[in-house]
Amino acid sequence: MEIEISSSIHLMYVSEIQQEMYDSAQRRGTGIAKRSIEYLSKKITDGNAVVATDKGNWVGFCYIETWSHGQFVANSGLIVSPEFRHLGVATLIKDKVFALSRKKYPNAKIFGLTTGLAVMKINSDLGYKPVIYSELTQDEEFWNGCKSCVNYDILMKKERKNCLCTAMLFVPDNTKNSTENNQSENRYNNEQESSFSI
Fold first, then answer.
1. Which residue from 43, 161, 174, 180 could staple onto 49, CB 3.0 to 4.6 Å apart?
2. Global pTM value
3. Which 3 state secondary structure label does DSSP give 51?
4. Facing residues of 170 across strands?
5. 156: which residues sit within 8 A by CB, 6+ positions away?
6. H helix intervals, 68-139
7. pLDDT tens for residues 92-111?
8. Are residues 44 and 52 in contact, defined by beta-carbon separation less than 8 angstroms?
């Protein structure tokens, strides 16, 4: 099996990838943002995806999205062909796309939204932590991508504060200090506000 950074040679798999994304979401009854053939094709040709193949057959896929002018990166659309599931392929793909994200965007926070326990475990092993939605990008275009999800109404009723997906975030070491300082400052401000309201 080969796990490669995508290029135009992988375009032959795009229809199969898109269909399996849709079919998988239907089988699980959970939300997944639908992506067009054009969108996925651009990710593939721009080298912003990872494709796994075995003897010319498509095995798995995941792609990179950037938000908030590159401050945030999402590793999205992780999918493995049904006959290759439960063999550790998803972990290998996530490892590769995570490394690609860190190489291309070393200062970006990497996040994901998922309903899958297996993906949560993989993310956790890579250093992601569960977070509240306000810690993620607030880029409107990102949230517009949720419109094709079956759970979009839930997201909007909850004012984008939470949904059925678990939000997870990886903060690189070079940005942790500034994040921790901001969190400490926010905690201090919250404590002050609490004492004022007593």
1. 43
2. 0.81
3. strand
4. 110
5. none
6. 89-104, 117-126
7. 999 999 999 999 999 999 99
8. no
